[in-house]
Amino acid sequence: MTTQTELSAIEVMKARGSVKKYQRGVEIPKEDLEEILKLAAKAPSSWNLQHWRYLVITSQEMKEKILPIAYNQQQVVDSSATVVILGDLEADKSAEDVYKPALEAGHITQQVYDTLIGQIKDAYANNPQKARDEAILNASLSAMQLMLAAKAKGYDTCPMGGFDREKLIQALNIPPRYIPVMLVVIGKAAAPARPSSRFPLEKLVIRESF
């Protein structure tokens, strides 16, 4: 649901920052959190396999449980929610679920369907590095979209790569199919994000070729 307080896309991108300090005890309404996740899930993905899964933690008990796993970064327990962004290492198994409805609806032909399914199976066959790369790449696209969606809804976020992945997998019973890519905390800022410098485009952009 769009409200007058929501920002434009450009305003959101300019306003988003990695907030470290959150107002403790703020609860995100279920409908807000679900809309943020639905928007995150509209991110693009290779073959539309939608490699992301969101393990959402809102209870204080569970946040306290993962606090030491996240090296005691206080935003894990003070924020309203900690979302574990998971990447699907076996996303090829979703191919039929993705393309069969399109085939049955007549949007693609049997030949196109067979070609796509074949391409996906060939890409993933005996290629764990490809599976890992795709899981991290596509889940990261969704994570960025989640952060922008949260900002548009009036919430702040911080992506976190500092945590013990093996301990997180054990603590949350994460199946081998999924890899924890990052944590994203969501909540209301108690202090603004620290200002961060950005390189000028002259240092970032290579035109045509090196």
From TrEMBL:
Keyword check for Oxidoreductase: yes
KW DNA-binding (keyword) present: no
Keywords in alphabetical order: Oxidoreductase
InterPro entries, per the entry: Nitroreductase, Nitroreductase-like
GO molecular function: oxidoreductase activity
Domain Nitroreductase: 14-188
Family: Belongs to the nitroreductase family.
Protein name, UniProt field: Putative NAD(P)H nitroreductase YodC
The organism's taxonomic lineage, starting at the top: Bacteria, Bacillati, Bacillota, Bacilli, Bacillales
Gene: yodC
